[in-house]
Amino acid sequence: MSKSKIAFVDLEGVLIPELWPFLADKFLIPELRVTTREEADYPKLMRQRLELLRNNKITAKQVRSALREVKPFDKAVRFIELLRETAYVVMVTDSFSGMNNYFVDMFATDEVYTNTLIEDIEGYFSHCEYWHSGEGKQRIFSCFNTTQKTLAVGDGLNDIKMLDRADFGILFQPSETTRRVAPDLPVALELADVLQFFSCELTVH
Length: 205
What we know:
Elements: E1 5-9, H1 19-26, H2 42-55, H3 60-67, H4 76-83, E2 88-97, H5 101-104, E3 111-119, E4 125-129, E5 149-154, H6 160-165, E6 168-172, H7 176-181, E7 187-188, H8 191-204
Parallel strand pairs: 1-2, 1-5, 2-3, 5-6, 6-7
Antiparallel strand pairs: 3-4
């Protein structure tokens, strides 16, 4: 890894819209609108989501088909390209392989850390496997033995510990709930602002 900086970037809420609220509207299941912006206990949240899908007879295949309608945020692909000019870029997401593959392939990140959804023989998502073993996204720092400067951007409650651990962490378009929990973190409203924040921080240091 030759670059002097490493950037940890969330997927949902930063590069693409939150997927579960989209599914809530698509399948008319309003309870699916709850995200990590409101519920910090991610395993609990996922158990609720999978139960809602099964109870409403929504299969994994139906979920993947519906998500093809979701588009990345404006200039998100270019944002990653520009970030890679100066940093080794790692996608660090609590979304799941099994439903996020279509989106992960859109972005030319150097590495991807993602959870996995397992399907049962009936075609429903049955349980989750977490890349961070339930410890949270901050575990990403133990995956890299490096002295590089670390940058991080995320939007939800489950991102805060990762952002706090980074040399420079940014909240991207956070909810009021997330903002109240982490009032000291800088906030960006556009991806261009994230690049400017990072550039200024790197210049100062």
